[in-house]
Amino acid sequence: MTVIYQTTITQIGASACLALEDSMLITFREGAPADIEEYCFIHCHGELSGSLHAGAALELGEHCYPVTAVGDVAEQNLRELGHITLRFDGQTTAEFPGTVHVAGPVPVAIAPGCILKFLA
Predict the structure, then answer these.
(1) CB 15 within 8 A of CB 39
(2) Alpha carbon separation from 2 to 51, 52, 68, 120 (Å, rounded)
(3) How far apart are CA 25 and CA 45, in angstroms?
């Protein structure tokens, strides 16, 4: 598999970890509006050099997750805003247009410096 996107988490919003309790992780690039930043894992925006699709993989720190579904606007949101909502539920149909679903356990600890990659 080839890395099509890579970024590093630089900051964690005050309420970002609450989403993990709902099996979600929300990202946004640096410079997000303050009201959005509070709920996001902020990262230094990388360049998307391929297509997000079911069958790709997400690497988050030391863990690898198969991508099971990609919403209609998730790729565009990631490319333009560094924004994506990851759901750790393995669904094969995207719940919302901006959601990427992956199979595997919800991460328990994400710290600044954690690397997020998509591979296809």
Answers:
(1) yes
(2) 11, 12, 18, 5
(3) 16
Whole-angstrom Cα distance, residue 46 to residue 92? Answer: 26
Catalytic residues: 43
Q: How far is residue 28's CA from residue 43's CA, in Å, rounded to a whole number?
A: 6
pLDDT tens for residues 34-50? 899 999 999 998 899 99
Q: What H or E segment, with its residue span, contains residue 84?
A: strand 84-88
pLDDT of 79: 96
Mean pLDDT confidence for 17-43: 95
The total domain count for the chain is: 1
What does the DSSP assignment read for 7-43?
EEEEEE-TTHHHHHTTTEEEEEETT--HHHHTTSEEE
The confidence score (pLDDT) of residue 108 equals: 85
Q: Give me the domain span that covers residue 25.
A: 3-119
pLDDT in tens, 45-64: 889 999 999 999 999 999 99
Domain of residue 80, CATH code: 2.40.33.40
